Structure formats: structure tokens, C-alpha cells
Amino acid sequence: MANNLPLKLATIALFLAVEVVLMGGFTRITDSGLGCPDWPGCFGKMVMTTDTQTIAYLQERYPEIHVAVHKGWIEMIHRYIAGGLGLLIMAIAFLGYREKQKTANYPYIVSLALLGLVIVQGAFGAFTVTLKLLPNIVTLHLMGGLIIVSTLMYLRHRLKRLANGETQMIRMRTPVLIGVVLLFMQILLGGWVSTNYAGWACPGILSCAPGADVQYDFQSGFHFFPEIGPNYEGGQLEHGARAAIQMVHRVGAFVVLAYWLGLIAIYINKRLLPSRKATHFIGLILLQIVFGYANVVYAVPDSLAFIHHALGVLLLLSAWSIAYATAIEQENAVYGNVRHA
User: Fold this and answer.
1) Number of other CB atoms surrounding residue 171 within 10 Å
2) Catalytic site residue from 60, 64, 75, 233
3) Annotated domain spans of the chain
4) Is 60 a catalytic residue?
5) The whole model's pTM is what?
6) 20 to 30 A from 153, CA-CA: which of 107, 210, 316, 331?
């Protein structure tokens, strides 16, 4: 591929997309999701005011939220980065339209799909605010961010192969894709824990609350269509529902751990996976479990909660990296020869 600009832009966009997801988590963790109760601006402007008198007036006008300068800035910085990402993806889609006529097998459809994803993600960003942090909307917003990150990683991989003169199609192995899906769902479960403020529900390490009879309410905890209208900052669920969410998330962590450890052991034994990538992934997943339990012990401080969130994003990137490293390269020859990448 003669034009390397799309690859460079995709690399920058991937970095920005990761930053958006990380900043979105920080916004949620610091309870800054309603730092700006309108969208796309903040109290009618594109910057958060720092004037003391204006802040006092806004607090009287919006008594249902805590008007704070730092929360408004956290939310607006998140929107600025997301806006920059949207413009960059528009440029990638435009370049893709031009390049598809010049470069064989150029992934133009992926570029166009990314543009559509960003538009939908922007709408969910607006719904997150206007529906007052409705848990299912906030979790879908997280899911959209992770899908955009994953799609950008795929686009970058395709463009990198084209830049190296590799036009063969690849097929990722089904067991790895299953592992990626399990990890993806576990991250979304973590988002469901966070949006329902269930991180504090179970102070016990192995059980929810040692010595206490916890009445788990799985039906309420996983009711995905809650009432529209209330302010969900701080959560609306009873303790039993929050405890059910927390314990399902913990069980999911061990399922993901067992699956990936078994898969990595098999792939290393078959010499399909470089030991460096395996070590990197195992290190991340063990760190994630350690910080998950540290959140339990120290009652979910913002710093540990953010590290837990960031490690989840890094794990997803590492899992996709393993998927590409173990993919099967399919020749375009008549006889359908297949060789390992």
C-alpha cells in the first residue's frame, strides 16, 4: 500500500479510543457523569465555568445534582477527546473512500462501519446524561467504546498487513475468539457493577459477607430495563441486588481466568503462541484479580477502581493481540493452501 497515511491515522485513533474509554471510566468512577447535565455543552457552554457566583446560581437551578467545577471539567475533557476521535474517524472513512479505488483489498467497509459506530456512540453519550446515568445505557455506552477500540485494532491490523504487502485473508481461531468474548462480557459485567454502585456490596474476600445471611436478588440485580426518570447516581438497587451483581462478577473472573490459562497452556504446548505474549497476558490477568480484591479490601477507592478499569481495557487489547498472533493465514491460491501466520 503506497499511502501509509490511513495506517498512521488508525494508530492515532486507536490510542485516542483507548483514552476515551479510560476517561469514560474515570468519569464514572469519580461520579462526574452528571458534572454537565446537558449535552454536548456544559450548562449551555462548551467549557465548564469556574466563576463562583455562576456556580452558586447553577446549584440553585439544578438542585438534584452536585454542581462542581472539577466534575464538569472531567466530563468535558472526556467529550473533547471523544470529539477529536470522531473527527479522526471521519477522516479515516474519507481516506478509505479514496483508497478503495487504488488499493486491492482495502478495508473500506471497516472504515465506514467505524464512522457509523462513532455516530451511535455519540448518541449514547447524550442518552447517558439526559437519562441521568440509567445503568443499561451507561453499560451500553461502555460496550460501544470497547467495540470501537476492537474495530480500530482490527482496521490497524489490516492496514499494517497491506503496508507490508500482505494481501492474504486471515482467520482467527475459534477458541481464542471465544476467550475474547468471555473477557468482553466480563468487562461489561464490571461496568454493570460500577453503574449500579455494587462494588461496595460484598466486603468479604471469598464470600460476600462472612457471618451474615445475604439474600441475593438476581432478578432485580439483572433487570436490564429499569425505570426511566430517577437520578441513578449513587444507585437505586437494594443490597441483595447489588450483592448478586458483585458475586456474579467474581464468578465470571474465575471462569475467564480458567479458560485463558487452559487455552494459553495448550497453545504454548503446540507452539502456536509466543511465550512473550502469553506472559504479558497472564501477568495482566493476575494483576486484574489482585486489584479486584484490593478494591474489596479497601472499599473501592477511586484510584484502585480506575486501575481495575484500565487493566480490563489492556487485557482486551492483549487478548486481541493473541488472536492476531495465532491467526491462520489463508492463501488466495487456487488450491487453497493454508499456512500459519
Assistant:
1) 11
2) 75
3) 1-167, 170-341
4) no
5) 0.93
6) 331
